[in-house]
Amino acid sequence: MTILYDHTMLFFTPVFLAGGATFDLKFRDRFSDMTTKFSGSGAVLGGGFNSTIMGTDCPWFGGVDVLYRTNLNPSVSRSTPIEGEKDELSFDQWSAGVRGGYNFATGMNVFRSVAPWAGVAFDSTNLTLKGTLPGSTALSTGTSSFRNEIASNDFLGEVGIDSHVWGPVFARSQVTFNDENVSVMAKLVYQFDICDWFD
Asked: How many other C-beta atoms lie within 10 A of the C-beta of residue 168?
């Protein structure tokens, strides 16, 4: 926590993400109408920060959230295998959002405060599919390769509720949506002051 001026406070939380993901990418040949699928799975790492600014005498608050994610194992397999071919799929995603809301104090020991909020986020996703194939004819002694890049940039609406569950434990329920998709997320957060480690 940082005190900016008077009774205005800035809460800054680093975010580290580690998990797994499954990839399924389909390509359709417009001439033959055949569909080829590339599938794979692997670890995903990411990082970013959440920040909230608010005043001790005002229940309104605002915040900025940033998150980056990438995959560590790019290997994927083709639905119709070709002998000797090696395919890789790289995934990079940036997400940045702003939000604002109102904090209600409940006066209870559990769920001491509830803070509904709404905001907008910008999401940028880049996929790169690369493949190499050894030469298989008498006239071809090297390798052939291909590369496809897909970029998606979209604005998303966000609504959610942050709750102070108890002590250092906080919870967030969040719905993210656009004109095509809706996603729901829930998480628990344990808050600590790193300065306490050095006292």
From this structure: 11
